[in-house]
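Example 4.3 (complexes with small molecules)
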Amino acid sequence: MSFLAIDVGNTRLKWALYDKPAVDARLLAHGVQFLENIETLAEGDWSRIAAPSQVLGCVVAGEAVRRRVIEQLELWDVTPQWVVSSSAEAGLVNGYDHPSRLGSDRWVAMIGARQRLIARGQRRPCVLVMVGTAVTVEAIDAEGRFLGGIILPGHGIMLRALESGTAGLHVPTGEVRDFPTNTSDALTSGGTFAIAGAVQRMVDNLRRHSGQEPACIMTGGAGWKMAPSMTVQSELVESLIFDGLLAIAHHRFGAATAA
Ligand SMILES: Nc1ncnc2c1ncn2[C@@H]1O[C@H](COP(=O)(O)OP(=O)(O)OP(=O)(O)O)[C@@H](O)[C@H]1O
Ligand SMILES: CC(C)(CO)[C@@H](O)C(=O)NCCC(=O)O
Ligand SMILES: [K+]
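Answer. The structure with potassium ion bound is encoded below.
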């Protein structure tokens, strides 16, 4: 009955094992590996967990990485399924020009966010921020339609771009300050304000569009670093991609299992 959910980002693979493919599932085990260490999974972390009966993943790291993950999954007699963004799934409608070109991590996280609001009886517009290797900021209306979103470089990419494009910006990580007075603080605050400012702008856009105050939900490996510097009130939910994978699995496998 157990269900393995996998999120393969551009830097790290995150996995979580649940007792069933359903929104009320219990977490049994979880872990994370940098992409360069994927080959250790079958003989390492995954050798210590019970064989899952279903596997559902989302991959944005490319086909070669996906194949390396599939090789590790050969440890068990299970055929993994991979989420491809579609025009509608699990209560969310996709407004992208070409729905399948939307990153599956964005799609899955939005499904997780929508599910979370509905569970609380909050049918309100929502801005979803995902802070990973890249940062995405999505707008979802009160009816569950993804209106559109933005992609910007993550903190690490911003810093590396500045380091490689200039002579004088090789400095240690600094602090976030309102008025930075040294290079380290100026760079760290610049990256942080870029992300916080982009979120503020999307919240303004969505408020203007919908005439309602949007909820703001944040997720991703570096979400906790951004949380203290946000200018809009936001809720940090570390597990949003897994919540989304559970919601999709619930629709795909759960109904059949319960019948
Ligand atoms: N102070 C900071 N604030 C925001 N982001 C930061 C900060 N410091 C580092 N980062 C960036 O956060 C990025 C994402 O971190 P992490 O690898 O934990 O996220 P992730 O969700 O696992 O990423 P992915 O899913 O893309 O693999 C890193 O590339 C790092 O550059
Ligand atoms: C934007 C990222 C890198 C965020 O992880 C990923 O969702 C992706 O590769 N997306 C494909 C392009 C798009 O979403 O429009
Ligand atoms: K991600």
